[in-house]
Specification:
Elements (H helix, E strand, L loop, with lengths): L2 H63 L2 H6 L3 E2 L6 E2 L2 H32 L2 H12 L6 H19 L8 H25 L3 H9 L4 H12 L1 H16 L3 H6 L17 H8 L9 H35 L1
Antiparallel strand pairs: 1-2
């Protein structure tokens, strides 16, 4: 065999070896990425299971001492009194009052602002308004609490003198302001994702911009809009510092937004300050309230999933 052919064979053999080595390294790298991603998923699952285990274990200790029937049916919540009362309905009522009030404030404003940015605003105006609106999401919740206490409450008391210093209306408004960027941003993303062909077809039939926005684009993006609503309400249910400062700490079974109320999260903050000895029913009541809050948000997430699936099947 000529010398030139030997060199070609050697180069080809070396090239094949490098190719096999590079392929093996690529496979090893891909397997490593898979393993790291799988471990991250396991960490998320383990964290969730750990939270459920702690909540269930401590809540079990509470329900060994307090009847679940009394806990879920009594209308008086006074765990620190003597004798104590453990009826969670006032806390549930206060939480629902804040969540519903915040939803009534934020959901229409968020949807309308999303429709404006998606359908009416120019790209330059949209790129300016959306970041400005999302700045609200970066403000600490304790600042919202003081904003509600020292700005919104005085205005409410001037208009309605019967409003108390700590009141549910002020808490609902500040929580509504907090979740407004979430509603607006998610709704705007859902509206923008609607295919352009639907808009053009409606315009071709002579529809106006308002008709296209309200009768074509909004129904087509209904799954994303519903998901943003449920997510925002879940955020309102879990809010802590703003409602603790603005709405007060008076567990009361009332639907009057002018009165002071207490939410489930605000009660957890109150008891978690360290004044309650560990191992007492008052201490374990934190976890019973936490389980109730977890079940409420879980129910909302399940309903959101079903609603999104139903409307997605209709419009896609």
């Amino acid at each position: 065999m000529p010398v030139g052919e030997d060199n070609v064979a050697a180069v080809s053999s070396a090239s094949a070896g490098f190719h096999r080595q590079g392929y093996s390294l690529r496979i090893l790298f891909e397997n490593s990425i898979w393993g790291v991603s799988f471990l991250c998923a396991l960490v998320s699952i383990a964290t969730t299971l750990g939270i459920l285990f702690v909540l269930s274990r401590e809540a079990y200790e509470f329900f060994n001492r307090v009847s679940p029937l009394v806990f879920f049916s009594s209308t008086r919540w006074a765990p620190l009194f003597n004798p104590p009362d453990y009826g969670i309905l006032p806390l549930v009522c206060g939480t629902a009052l804040i969540a519903v009030g915040a939803g009534l404030f934020a959901l229409p404003l968020g949807l309308l602002s999303a429709i404006f940015m998606s359908e009416y605003a120019s790209p330059r105006l949209r790129s300016t308004l959306k970041p400005l609106l999302e700045i609200l999401a970066g403000i600490p919740t304790v600042v919202y609490g003081y904003f509600g206490l020292f700005f919104i409450t005085p205005i409410l008391r001037k208009v309605f003198p019967s409003v108390e210093v700590f009141n549910a209306a002020s808490g609902a408004i500040v929580v509504g302001i907090m979740i407004l960027p979430l509603v607006s941003s998610l709704c705007e993303d859902a509206l923008t994702a609607v295919p352009r062909s639907l808009r053009e077809g409606a315009y071709g039939l002579g529809a106006t911009k308002m008709e296209v926005s309200l009768k074509i684009v909004t129904p087509a993006a209904l799954s994303g809009i519903v998901a943003s609503f449920i997510l925002a309400i879940s955020r309102a249910v879990g809010e802590t510092m703003a409602v603790t400062l603005a709405a007060g700490a008076t567990p009361k079974l009332t639907l009057n937004p002018a009165e002071s109320i207490q939410t489930m999260t605000a009660y957890i903050v109150q008891i978690s300050k360290g004044d309650t000895p560990a191992g007492t029913p008052e201490y374990y009541s934190i976890y019973a309230v936490g389980v109730t809050l977890f079940l409420a948000t879980l129910f909302m997430n399940i309903m959101a999933h079903r609603l999104v699936k139903r409307f997605r099947n209709v419009y896609e």
